[in-house]
Amino acid sequence: MATIPTMMQAIVVKHAGKDSQLHTEQRTVPQPNAEQLLIKVAAAGINRADLMQRRGLYPPPQGDSDILGLEVAGIVVAAGPQHKSWLGKAVFGLVPGGGYAEYALMHAGHAMAVPHGYSMAEAAATAEVFLTAYQLLCSLGELQSGQQVLIHAGASGVGTAAIQLAKALGAKVAVTASSDEKLQVCTALGADLALNYYHCAFEQQLAQQWPEGVNLILDPVAGDYISREIPLLAQDGKILLYAMMGGREVPQLDLAALFKRRGQLICSTLRNRSNRYKTNLTQAFVAAFGASLAQKRIRPILQQQFNWQQAEQAHQLMAGNTTIGKLVLTF
């Protein structure tokens, strides 16, 4: 193994808030504890959580790195004593922070081997979106073959992953997105019904197309969407909220409609889950879909790669809400 330096380059946030800036600075290379791997980062996925963190709205859990970046792909260069078998191997997976740097720590239970034929950029675009989608659809949503699911932001990273997993599970999939180009991508991935929310009221169109109701709704919008979604639910249906892009407050929510359907409104996060939870989630995903991922029957949708020094440009592109799939930084 090559000698590990003591210092590394990292992208850090200055003046967190609406006027935040990204800067490169020297940081000490972190040292893995008994349960961690040290990854020489080749690529890091960009997530909307990164944009929220630099605005001061999504601080890292106590004790975790303040450096942005929640998923990486790279080579294991150091490991805890029980995990030496990972040394020298190409892995990808979730990290609790620190991904926008030359070296990052990963819990050994969160590491997945990069499938043959995948670039590091493709691998770095996979963990966060597929594990989030798997958690929502399977762990929480308990989606079954033949059921119907509505996926908002269908062309997003999580949306494109969720379409593929839902179809693999045998579900019928409806999506919403903001442009015909995005909807075409969703349809190509298997979506059965694609709705442009600028051109129609999604709840009216869906009620007409699927009068029997929807079993599961994946919602990163929240706000007034919730009141519009409840009447769409089939009996015992679930709305899973995993972001609040439309606002944190719900105006005039009538719970009677939710009770009538025995509906559930569930808020979900992934970053602040325990290491054990993330390990179990990672292992369950690999058991269920690892072969499909390796064979590219399911795959990340990678829109663009940026050199890591172009992180600001990548963030601006994501903030414009025009992206399809994932953006990745390469080192």
Automatic annotation (TrEMBL):
Domain Enoyl reductase (ER): 17-329
SMART domains: PKS_ER
CDD domains the UniProt entry points to: p53_inducible_oxidoreductase (cd05276)
Domain of life from the UniProt record: Bacteria
Record keywords: NADP, Oxidoreductase
Pfam families according to UniProt: ADH_N, ADH_zinc_N
Protein name: NAD(P)H-quinone oxidoreductase
Naturally occurring in which organism (per UniProt): Rheinheimera muenzenbergensis
